[in-house]
UniProtKB/TrEMBL annotation, chains A, B:
It is an enzyme of class 1 (oxidoreductase). The gene is leuB. This is 3-isopropylmalate dehydrogenase. Its main location: cytoplasm. GO terms for cellular component: cytosol. Homodimer. It catalyses: (2R,3S)-3-isopropylmalate + NAD(+) = 4-methyl-2-oxopentanoate + CO2 + NADH. Belongs to the isocitrate and isopropylmalate dehydrogenases family. LeuB type 1 subfamily. NAD(+) binds at residues 274-286. Residues 2-340 form the Isopropylmalate dehydrogenase-like domain.
Amino acid sequence: PKVITLPGDGIGPEITAAAAQVLREVAPDVTLEEHALGGGAYDVYGDPFPQRTRDALSEADAVLLGTVGGAQDSPWNKLPRPQRPESGLLALRKALGCYANLRPVRVQPGLEHLSPLKPELARGVDILIVRELLGGIYFDQDRKIEGDAAYNTMRYTTPEVERVARVAFWAAEQRRGRVTSVDKANVLEVSELWRRDVQALRDRSYRGIHLNHEYVDSVAMLIVSNPSRYDVILTENLFGDILSDLAAVIPGSLGVMPSASLGDGAGLFEPIHGSAPDIAGQGVANPAAAILSAAMLLRHGLKRPDAANQVDRAVAFALRSHPTRDLGGQADTGTFTRAVLEALD
Amino acid sequence: PKVITLPGDGIGPEITAAAAQVLREVAPDVTLEEHALGGGAYDVYGDPFPQRTRDALSEADAVLLGTVGGAQDSPWNKLPRPQRPESGLLALRKALGCYANLRPVRVQPGLEHLSPLKPELARGVDILIVRELLGGIYFDQDRKIEGDAAYNTMRYTTPEVERVARVAFWAAEQRRGRVTSVDKANVLEVSELWRRDVQALRDRSYRGIHLNHEYVDSVAMLIVSNPSRYDVILTENLFGDILSDLAAVIPGSLGVMPSASLGDGAGLFEPIHGSAPDIAGQGVANPAAAILSAAMLLRHGLKRPDAANQVDRAVAFALRSHPTRDLGGQADTGTFTRAVLEALD
Ligand SMILES: CC(C)[C@H](C(=O)O)[C@@H](O)C(=O)O
Ligand SMILES: CC(C)[C@H](C(=O)O)[C@@H](O)C(=O)O
């Protein structure tokens, strides 16, 4: 099988190299092929998602992404929107047809003290956020600034809602069987459609799932004040962007949070943290999220659950034996990665 | 001066009665006039914002609102959208021209333990959220469901951005002089306009203010992991809905959080919590948020800072001497209100 790696910008190259090393170790038959994406790709090819990267995807079984984008004052942010690093990322998601972004949020036993929440609230939290990734206000075709007014349209269709809802129901079947669908149906027509379609699909095909609907503002509160009430959270693109980042702070260590984006073809696997340009190139970034993304790639992309579990276990071990600086430890990228490699059983 | 009270639904009538009692005590010359709004108004007049309520507003110096809306399974939620309780609330905001919603989020010294956050994170938090209240995706004219697709358009114009930004800058001048403007400028054109206009206004007219711009997903994280970094947060309607509810959980007691909505004419003052139909009519609801909303009404609506401070102090005292059930105490609505009245100095 073939995995395309897209190291991207900032700390992306360092942590992707670490994840690639681990991948090579547990799946020696996998071919890794590196391509350009993001700000660096723009600098070289004049396009944050160059044609040669796009072409390479057709042969990929899975894609491992690092991080894209520069600092707030980066010249990349002054480019016309289609040339900015983020546009490369959105175009990549689209090209792969990855409509379901899965973000597990789990507080590891014994690591409750890292959470910004009180330990009794953080304990046992185990949420899976399923975010729709190819629709809504992100992919509006009529977006515009016109004189002193600007417009973006949020739009969803029934097929778009159903395909991502299926992923949430499927995931819930393997977990605790509960899905909370998030919307703003008291204000938005799009949410009304969303709620109706999710409920109808549940009633038609997933009667074993317990489904409820909550407003996005209420979920933002409850995720903090009572996170244990959630199993799977299903939501549209913009709400998912906000809620998945919010939920991600609960474990207290962004540096260990992976994600998987699944859809029609090859899946896309990436850490949820940003490109951290302030520490890029120093070899101190925590590669755990990238390595755990490689584990998700093994599980969902290559259907190798045993190798995935092996990596998960090794990372859990290394986080305890060699914590990185963001976790209050001393280990740099290399030290941590060697600890993972040694812990592979 | 004349104050219109709109008790609304659920616990609204009980807590508004409590707030009205306190208002009468500290401002005996104020005339209070009660009108209908929300689900109850629909039941009687067939309209959640009846014409006679609308007419009464023209004579108001300020409006004191309780809460509107029913339980999730309430028949009100099955009505056509314009007849639902929430539509009454949105129409009221519009009729009053209240474009700036102010929500103070303060953790009282000694009450850090109520917060879901670790005490060391909650300590000293003092944020003012300024949410744009009359624009964006909430007031879209082209909203529609069409077959199996639905659309809502987010739109802002420069004058809309500037008038609410002025409120944020003005408020910051009286606080710590810092404004964080929240957007999603890496994806949305509307946010690009928002960011540009807020910055231009600062550069033109508020050079003493320290302004920075952050993405909404990042703010959702940082409000939880490092809330003390914020002074004034300025944002558009939908992001403000989510972030202001999120921030509201930090003090750990929704029952004590007031809000003020200011604009062209009379201001609107209301608690931020919902109508809590499950405990309505039992006389146990915490009226603190409603009473503190009356204090904001005295301060911003009637320009009586002394009376406002008097009420603030009395509520702070009563919260300690007679905590309500939601705060782990015993006091019911009546007991708490009497404690406030007795504590007025
Ligand atoms: C960089 C940005 C376009 C992106 C998004 O909003 O989807 C990011 O925040 C994310 O969540 O992956
Ligand atoms: C009830 C609803 C329409 C309202 C809003 O979204 O503005 C509420 O959530 C609020 O924040 O006051």
